[in-house]
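Q: Is it fine to ask for two folds in a single conversation?
A: Yes, each is treated on its own. Send the first.
Q: Here.
A: Result:
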Amino acid sequence: MSARRLLVLFGFPGRGGFNEAALQGAERAGRAGHALHAEWVAATDPATRAERLAQLCNGNPDLVIVHGGQGDAPVAEVAPHFPRTQFAITQGSHTAANAASYEILQEHSAFLAGILAGLRAEGDGTEGCPSDGRPAGGRPAHLSGERVRPGLKGRAAFADGVRRVTGRDPLTGFCGNQHNPDLGEAWTRALAAQRASVLFAMMDGGRDGVTRACREAGIWQIGNVLDWVARDPEVYLASALADSGLCVERAASDHAAGALAVGRITRFGLEADASLRLVLGAEVTAYERRELDAWSERLASGEIEIASHYDGEEFALS
């Protein structure tokens, strides 16, 4: 009998970004013979998510991969009641005798996104000044949805990069929902009113609204998880690639080999360069590219310790 493996995703089908990366990872796992059945959970509160996860586990699956740091709390509650099922959380931190976490270190590409946003904001007409016709200056900005560990770590890394270039904090906020385009658009417009000039958006289904507002306001966006530059080069200056689908793919293959890394966190860093890097658009200048190369070398060498917490001010939508 073949193993029963589930992939649990929070949100809604058909919306690109973080969940799209997971589905791509599941497709790769399927082609390798480790098929995953996707289950969607629309609820946003941990208690309801845990309830739905328990319902799915009543079917006695062999493996449940829960995509995103939002899975930490539900898996911590549910896994002890299903000791024969193995669990894997992507971008999480919870581990147990039957639970593993697999994490791609998105803070590396987020840090480089902060460096680029800082360089772009500091452009003053020298060789570092952009040639795209948009004015230099303004403020680097960040926007995410839920306050989960991966989002907080990514924000801290981006802010660290901005600080190292400009000596100042970025505009930053959490709108409360990764998947609401209208909410993402409203927050982006509010950030634009505060002179945001480059926006690092860590969004999922809400990204369409963010992109719409960026296009209308003339703000460069830096995407995350996937290569958004290839999809919309007129809006995306860069994209902090951190393909969490790699975690899905690896958890499925490890389980198939009887080697799921339960009880610990497996991390993927810059060595996974096909899945973790800052993708640059055509409008990134030669000067910015040289600076990014230098910072990347320092990061890869271990010279730089990226901040894991942000202690600056936050923007609130009035």
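Q: Second one now.
A: Result:
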Amino acid sequence: MAEVRVEVDGRTLTISNLDKVLYPRTGTTKGEVLDYYARISPVLLPHLAGRAVTRIRWPHGTGDGSFFEKNAPRGTPSWVRTVEVPTTGSRGESRHGDTLVFPVCEDLATLTWMANLAALELHVHQWTVTRTGRVRGADRLVVDLDPGEGAGLGECSTVALLARDALAERDLATRPVLSGSKGLHLYADLPRRLDPDDATALAKEVAEELTAAHPKLVTATMTKARRTGKVFFDWSQNAGSKTTVSPYSLRGRDAPTVAAPLSWDEVAEGADDPLALEQLRFDEVLDRVAERGDLFAV
């Protein structure tokens, strides 16, 4: 059956190619992707709410090419909420008067529509928009801990604990998330909204502090040649134009891994034993949420 019409939250959607394999290595189909997003939606949607969504789509599966999509595509249903924002993504000011029209995903129908377009990865900014579409400042800080060659999740876990302490000294409580790719993401809610430039400066300050204190383990430099055996503390994800994959989003890797929230106990175990942590697949994440709820919300 090439197409089926389904009702989702009172919206009628045409779903196509449910048997199409989107993860060739594991044989994971579009139907399984749609099922995951439907089942994970109660904990995923709160992390997307109020944020413009950039999608990475793999129309022919992860064994083929992908593309970023910021603007809502032609044919977007009229009921999908969209927001027009300046290309700078900050302060509501556009450098050249250019804008982008992003979709905002706050319900299962919109999430299903995105997944049906093979939008496996859902990326969001750290700033939000109001119900009327006005761009607000960043309400959280994010750090991407990216291991260089010769480093892995063990080193990322050690750096995550150091970053947690450095951010705690600034009265910021941090939550860890497996990136679903190679490393870890750290999030910290901000006590007040910041311009993305100020949030970036704060993250960079922490990155440089840890690099100075642990030069053999941490680098704040983007140059890949300087990352060997170290963890790149990527502070730049806080820029107004940058996005980070949302907690609970799938990743477009060989296997259907997920950006999966962790407990700090799990991170500590990963620091003690490099084999204690590994990226999690969507079925594992569904089981974790059923058993433990949304660790990101704890």
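Q: Anything structural to flag on that second result?
A: Two points. The CA atoms of residues 250 and 258 lie 4 Å apart. The mean pLDDT is 94.
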